[in-house]
Amino acid sequence: MSHILIVHAHPEPQSLTSALKDLAVTTLEARGHEVQVSDLYAMRWKTLADRQDFTDTCDAERLRYIAESRHAYATDTQTMDIAAEQQKLLWADAVLFSFPLWWFGMPAILKGWVDRVFAFGFAYGVGEHGGERWGDRYGEGMLAGRRAMLMVPIGGRAPYYSERGVNGSLEEILWPIHHGTLFYPGLTVMPPFPVYSSDRLDEAGWQQVAADLEQRLAGLFSDAPIAYRRQNGGHYDGEQRLKPGLGEGEGGTRIHLVQPSDPEQRPARV
């Protein structure tokens, strides 16, 4: 049995996004997993990162959020809502994020969850620096050993999000979330589960989506993750630039994926 956390961000319980979340809960529990859901709208999650996040502060005159975050995490003076979500993340073996793609990113309430929960000392500011090593991040960190997957309804059609699509490829659009938000603190990132043309889905379409999601959830711990290069895996130099000879034949963010042509291949930590 594994522990699964679902972080859900949609204001309507009868939405497609909520239906995917509900199906994920049912499917995972039927497979013997233990599931917790953080339904951010139902929780009335506080979105703003501000002074109210700290029950004790270092500087009463000027808010330096990073410094206060570091102090609060180290001294156990975070607010209870932040600490509770951090404990859920540490409890989980996998984290599913359920949200619609709004303006090429996550809804504000989910961004606010990340801003507040991913505190200094918890999701960043972890590990020692020295030589070519720059802390425990990008494949290492507090959340290493846990898998993450996005369940993302999208209003546009699939071709819009293809390699030559007008909106850009979904891989590139989700890069800031996949690589910058999830892989950074150590999560092993699975390919996303997008649902295109989500506002035009009929019953037959839903049945196919449901079957596809059940299959993806069955492989949550066995399917191959996105093969991001670990920061401390020997791929980057002291300036954190990809070393010569790596990423040949690729462009954009794809150079940061382990390639079969790499002279010295080190797979991302799973």
TrEMBL record:
<dbReference type="InterPro" id="IPR003680">
    <property type="entry name" value="Flavodoxin_fold"/>
</dbReference>
<comment type="similarity">
    <text>Belongs to the NAD(P)H dehydrogenase (quinone) family.</text>
</comment>
<dbReference type="InterPro" id="IPR051545">
    <property type="entry name" value="NAD(P)H_dehydrogenase_qn"/>
</dbReference>
<feature type="region of interest" description="Disordered">
    <location>
        <begin position="232"/>
        <end position="270"/>
    </location>
</feature>
<dbReference type="InterPro" id="IPR029039">
    <property type="entry name" value="Flavoprotein-like_sf"/>
</dbReference>
<feature type="domain" description="Flavodoxin-like fold">
    <location>
        <begin position="3"/>
        <end position="217"/>
    </location>
</feature>
<dbReference type="Pfam" id="PF02525">
    <property type="entry name" value="Flavodoxin_2"/>
</dbReference>
<protein>
    <submittedName>
        <fullName>NAD(P)H dehydrogenase (Quinone)</fullName>
    </submittedName>
</protein>
<dbReference type="GO" id="GO:0003955">
    <property type="term" value="F:NAD(P)H dehydrogenase (quinone) activity"/>
</dbReference>
<dbReference type="GO" id="GO:0005829">
    <property type="term" value="C:cytosol"/>
</dbReference>
<keyword id="KW-0560">Oxidoreductase</keyword>
